[in-house]
Each structure stands twice: as C-alpha cells, then as structure tokens.
Amino acid sequence: xxxxxxxxxxxxxxxxxxxxxxxxxxxxxxxxxxxxxxxxxxxxxxxxxxxxxxxxxxxxxxxxxxxxxxxxxxxxxxxxxxxxxxxxxxxxxxxxxxxxxxxxxxxxxxxxxxxxxxxxxxxxxxxxxxxxxxxxxxxxxxxxxxxxxxxxxxxxxxxxxxxxxxxxxxxxxxxxxxxxxxxxxxxxxxxxxxxxxxxxxxxxxxxxxxxxxxxxxxxxxxxxxxxxxxxxxxxxxxxxxxxxxxxxxxxxxxxxxxxxxxxxxxxxxxxxxxxxxxxxxxxxxxxxxxxxxxxxxxxxxxxxxxxxxxxxxxxxxxxxxxxxxxxxxxxxxxxxxxxxxxxxxxxxxxxxxxxxxxxxxxxxxxxxxxxxxxxxxxxxxxxxxxxxxxxxxxxxxxxxxxxxxxxxxxxxxxxxxxxxxxxxxxxxxxxxxxxxxxxxxxxxxxxxxxxxxxxxxxxxxxxxxxxxxxxxxxxxxxxxxxxxxxxxxxxxxxxxxxxxxxxxxxxxx
Length: 509
Fold this sequence. Notes:
Helices cover 36% and strands 20% of the residues. It is of the alpha/beta class. It has a seven-stranded mixed beta sheet, sandwiched between helices. Helix 3 (73-89) crosses helix 7 (190-206), helix 4 packs across helix 5 (106-126) and helix 5 runs parallel beside helix 6. InterPro entries: Ald_DH/histidinol_DH (IPR016161), Ald_DH_C (IPR016163), Ald_DH_CS_GLU (IPR029510), Ald_DH_N (IPR016162), Aldehyde_DH_dom (IPR015590), ALDH7A1-like (IPR044638). It comes from Haliscomenobacter hydrossis (strain ATCC 27775 / DSM 1100 / LMG 10767 / O). The active site is at residue 262.
C-alpha cells in the first residue's frame, strides 16, 4: 500500500523517542518496532528512553517551564492555535497513520485528528477564560480573591486505542494553563506520538519557544514508572486499564502528587419499549463494533425490555451479517483488526468463558483467515446471550463482544446497568420523558457519562470526559477540567491602616 503519509509526517525507519537536542551519549541503543495490525508489515522503530535520557528530558522541561509560565495565557493560546492550523494541514496524513498503526477505520482516524483540532480551538478560547473569583472579606479595608497558577510538568500516559487525541485533550489544556508536558505514548503506537511531536516542534521553533515545552518518552511500563515516581512531575494523567490505574494511583498519591485516571469501561445501553429501533440499531452497532470494540466507551452490554427483546435480537443479528471486516483504510469496510495477537488471545479466552458461564452465541465469533487477514488480528464481532450476573459480563474485554441482556422494569434495568465495577459511559433509548429523567437522576445511571437516545461510544470535547468507580474518577478535555492542571491560590489584600484579625480575635501589645 502507499505509505507516503510517513514521509509527510517526517517519519523515518529509525526515530528518536524523546525531545530533540539531547546528547547522543544519552540515547538508548534499543528500539520499539512498530508493526501494523492491518497487514502485519513493519512501519518503523522508535528509540526507547533510557534513565539518563529521561532525566535530561525532565531537566529540559523544567527550564522550559520557567519561560513558558511567564508567557501571557492568550499568547500561549496563540501557539496552540498555530498547532491546530498545522494539524489541519496534516489531517489526512496523520489520520492515515492512526488508522494504519492502530487499526481503526480511516474515518475514525481522521475523526481522531479532528478531535485534536477541536480541542486546540477549545483551548484557544480557554486561554482568555482562566477565571478566578473575588470574595467579600469580613474585615474592613480588605479584599479577597483567588487565582490559578500553572503546576509545572504534566506527565501524560496514553493508550493505543486513541494514540493522538487523548494526548491532545491533556496537553493543549495544560499548555494554555502554563504547564509543560512529557508524554509517555503507548509502546503499541509509538510512531503516532513522534508524528505529533514533529508537527508541534515546527510551531515551537517558528515562535522561538523552548522545545522542552512538549516532550515525548517511549518504552514499556518501566518508562511510565519514571514519570509516576518522579516528584518533579506534580500531575500524572493516565489512560489505560484499571489494573494499571490502581498501581499508578497509589504510587502518585504516595508521593503526594495528583493524578487524573481514565480507566476501564463496561458500558451499557438500556432499550425501552418506546425507543426508536432505528436509533437503537445504529447506536448499538457502532458502539459495539467501532474501533473493533477497543474504545473505553464501547458498548459491552445491551439491556433490552422483554416485550421487544425478540425484535431487537433479530434485527441486531441481521445487521451483524452486513458488517464488512477488512483493511480499515478501505472506507467500504466497517471493522478493522484488533491491535495485536495478545488482544486476539484475550478475545478468544473471553469466548471460552462465555460458554463456560452458560452463555450462548447469537452471532458467532472467531478469528478470520485468508487473503486480507494475514496479520492474524482480524476477528468476528459477536453477540452473546447470557445472565447479567455472569463474571465475564462484569469484566471489560477490549474486543467486539456484545452481551444481550433482558429486563422487565426500568428499576431493574438501571440496577443491571450499575451492577458492574466500572462507571464510564451509559445510555438509554427512550421516547418517554419520565424514563429519561429517571435515568439521568441521582437514582439513575452511576456513570460519568449518561446519554439519552445516543450510544455510549464517543464524546464531544466540550464536556468533561471521565467516569466513576473503577474508571478512576478523573476528568479531562472540556468544561472546567482545566482546573486539574493548575493550583488554586487564595489572596487577601489589606489596603487599610489597621491590621484587624479574622473572627474578631483581639491581639493587643
């Protein structure tokens, strides 16, 4: 296939894995090789980050922060705006790289880059809206207010499934807040990170901004531990599994640092008798098979009222027969590959557990073989009918497996929806106002995201993204999530000739 997009993005066979300008003696002599799940072909390599190189990267970031924090916030926003313009120029090439290195459809690859552009636009506006508050003092001749200051270095650990967008959600907000960032990208999609950095460093050089404002490091979990254990990095924003989040959260909290955790999801759609079945099918189908089920917001469970269960069951099974599975850069295909062979093994193990736990397959799964499937990473999206209390249903499998569940009344459906350890995204399909409002009430969905008549998958950048329970409780992207990237300071100014004490305390000499 044509891979001109690699040259457009400045990628080579061997790519440097951190900030530019570091001493060659610091470079590790080991590389991460990136192979495409699309066709199994070698794409390129990225140098892993040695401990010495990491420390040099942090030192560069610290020096850059001393400069960057004094740049007025609207001027910082201008740098982000220019990056957004560069992303517009490179949207096609970067979207193709995302699709090829990660395996998601080309439309989703382009869509992910569009999210980056959108968050740049959001951050530009935010750069003029980092508001504090003013308060009335109880003491005469005093004024109180609060203001927000940048934290310093923000460590960003991202996952393979959104190899560029999640970094941008964090870094663009952090940048306008006056922070600098160090990005530990997924070792499964390292070239996407290098490409983003190549584009951004062009903007930094043209504006004479220190390159240490944005750095990347590469490697496995051990390189991630450099960040999580480092007291010089006050905030870690990490996306990944719940297991990873438990370990990282404890380490960061142990050193009194802050963390934003975006972890596992086990998302459900409740389908009521009043729902529009055309909307149900579209929302459930894309939610379950989009990105081959490798989104944290993917639909894992479809909870259907018993009066329409058979209708939904038949319609959904028929829709699955029309799915086209193949090369994701071919826009005629709906479903691409899983990220690697380890993901395929996890998928197959889940199918075995479904059978062992009493489930039956409405739509059979399996691994695809033959022409076009040489990478061994293409699997069949499948549907299982199973009891909602089965252990496998409460587990997040990062694959296109949908569990079809039945309920009798809405309270039962909400209990099933909430009866899993994760709490990211949820949805209800209904044309009944009371049902919708109950689902959105405090006794309804316990997730960080709750939708009506749209699916669980995907989110707009204007809203704060994140979930509850084992999903981690963090928020990033829109709304007021910017506050997580700054420190709050309360100020009191005495402009009188006296020094009255608070609460009327008297202290006389």
